[in-house]
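User: My instructor asked us to take a sequence, write out its structure as tokens, and then describe one feature of it. I'm not sure where to start. Here is the sequence I was given:
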Amino acid sequence: MSNQFVIILLGTLTVLVLAFFVLRFFREARNLRRRYSGIIDFDAELTAVRNKLEQAKREQQEFDSEDERRRAKLNEEYERALTVYKDLKKEISLLEENLEDISFGLYKPHFTFQTAEEYKTALENLRNQERQLIHDGRAAVCPIQWTVSGSKKEGERMVKLHEKLLLRAFNGECEAAVANVSWSNVTKMEERIRKAFEAVNKLGDVEKVSVTQDYLKLKLDEVRLAHESEAKRYQEREEQRRIREQIREEERAQQEIEKARKEAEDEEARFQKALERAREEAAKATGAQLEKLTKQISSFESKLDEARQKKERAISRAQLTKSGFVYVISNIGSFGERVYKIGMTRRLEPMERVFELGGASVPFPFDLHAMLYSDNAPELETALHQLFEGRRINLVNPRREFYQGVEIEEIETFVRGRGLSAQFIKHPEAREYRETLARREQRLSTSRGPAPKEPERFSEDLFGRHEDGDRKGTS
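Assistant: Let's start with the prediction itself. The structure tokens for your sequence are:
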């Protein structure tokens, strides 16, 4: 009886447990069905998701491809616009005189005339050729025989009128180019004439009227001649300036020599007169007075010899027209270090020439490195210039005798090799420049304010004392 009860109880519990799990399964199934009610078939849903991804990928590729096409189109438009901009800027630059936009280069001369007067004559001949070309009808041409209302004469009249208009427009542009040509824009002016030639001929394209290449060549030669003529005049002016400066320098030297000779002659006459008077007095004197006069006579004779030697030197300098001084100077405040000017002067006081060069034209005075006397100063100066020709600063104007990257030792070695002796100063004083630097540094220090003080225990004066006045090692 008891065993049956247990069996029935266990069966009942088993059925209850199974019923609980069945109910729970159905509840979870209902929840899953409610949650994923939109998904009927997992494989179908996965395929749909994949299809959507593929579609999105294709759309992205199409978008990227379209974006690439737009980018390529924009780049093409940009390049086209940039080309137009550069062409317009180039054409505008032909009409503007802005040195910042000029591309400097060496101009190769087209003519070989020797003087500015020859260039002037050639320019006049060229303009006569232009007038003759216009007179002969070869400056502008029209290959088509036009008729106006059936009249050839009226057609010829129309063509002549258009040729005249084109030539007037072209000549106006050429005259402006010739009037404004300079060393810095000659190539621009040539290009400006060519552009005007193309623009004018484009205006006459409908009637087939055009300016000829022969007339263009004459106009290009005209602007080149005008430029080279001005360059030749500049060279002649510089040469004349050099000659005038040399003449002034020679005149100053001759004046100094003449002044020194006159002073020596005056001294000679004065000492000669004093010597004769002393000799007359000595002939009558005796004792101590005679001894005193004898000493005066000896002194006067010495001074008379010195005056005669000074006179002879002045006469000798006047006769030696090539004698003079070659100087080596620098100005680090104005031109920097290792830049030297090597020049020549025939003055008796050569430093006066150095002082003149350090006038108001430069911010600081020049410093002397060497003053070399030579009986043939121009030859010595030329030899030094040739030695440092590769280091000349101004390659156009040889009158600017400045050289860069030169060492004083090189000059000293060269000069001593020619048997000349002189004192060389390697380090310039540059007093005003160095004092200027010191004052500028002082101003900067003042503007920055005083430096922060160190802790008091480490502050000592020159005697080893602390700021409170105590000495170290002393009582």
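For the description part of your assignment, you could build on this observation: Confidence is low (pLDDT under 50) at residues 97-104, 454-475. Try explaining in your own words what that tells you about the chain.
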